Structure formats: C-alpha cells, structure tokens
Amino acid sequence: MDKNYxxxxxxxxxxxxxxxxxxxxxxxxxxxxxxxxxxxxxxDHANAEDIVQSVFVSIWEKRKKINPGLSIKNYIYKSxxxxxxxxxxxxxxxxxxxxxxxxAIDIIVENNHEELERLMHLVDNEIEMLPPKCKRIFLLNKxxxxxxxxxxxxxxxxxxxxxxxxxxxxxxxxxxxxSKTNPVLFLLFDFGNQLKRLN
Length: 199
Prior knowledge:
By secondary structure, the chain is an all-alpha fold.
C-alpha cells in the first residue's frame, strides 16, 4: 500500500481521511529534508526542527483542508517557509534588516523551494573551489564578518590585495549565479553577521 502514497492525489486523500500511516509516510519521507531546508532559512538547528514539527502538527490538524490537486512536496515546503516567516515576525521587530532578508528569500525562491536548495549548494561548491588564498579572504569577509582592513592586518597583506581577492571571488560566483549572487550570499553570510552586530 505504501507505493500508492507516492501518488500525490492518493496521499492527499488518505491524509484527508485521517489515515495515520499516510501521515507517518509523509514524515518519514520529508522530515529530514525539511529540517535541512528550514536550517537554510534560520541558521539554527533547534529552531529549524521546531518549525518543521509545527508544520507537521498543523498539517495533521488541518488535514481535511488539504487539496488533493496540489503537489504535496510543494505544499509542505511552502508551509515550512510560511512558518519561518510567521515565527520570525513574532520574535523580531519589523526592521529594515528583516525586510531585506525576506526579500532576498523571495527573490531566490520565486515559489520554488528547489531553486533555493540548488543555489545554496551551488554557492557552497563554488566557494570550496576558489583558489586557497582567495577562498580564505572571501570567507573571512563574508563568513566571519571581518572588514578589509581587519583582514589586511590579520594576514599581513595590503588592503588592495584583500579587495582584489574578494572581487575575484565575486566575479567567479557571478558567472554561475548572475543577478542572484548578492541575495544568496546575503542569506548564507551577511544576515547572520548583521544580526550578531545588532545583538
């Protein structure tokens, strides 16, 4: 019977009917990957799991409202995204940084969660493939939040050298991502760094 659950219409219908096995199948298939997806939004493992758990509880409570004509996968990913936005707005004041972060997600996702995952993975791979010194300087700036001057002093190199490597890294990433380079980098690094500065 489990094979039938692979059919969205059948799975949706069984969930609407209150079939516990259908719900278990949904959790077994999607819980781990949804936690990974939620982590790309929250940068916090515990919060990511809380979001996913809340989504599954909500799905079960509102199972009779599930539309069998919709893609289950898209539905639950969108639910995780919406739950993240709801929780974030409850816990944070509405500030410019929040708006910029949410806008960055919207620009990338464009109602397609797989695009976000693909871009995040692509950026990670491209950064790993950067020349060693270029990669180190780029990560010191983006991941650790050091300024060009701080990196210059830390590595005992000129500021122009630092700027040159960062520019080179951006150029390489832009060739792969185009106009989405800045939003993806903002999601990966800048948002976390700016929050640290605010705290």
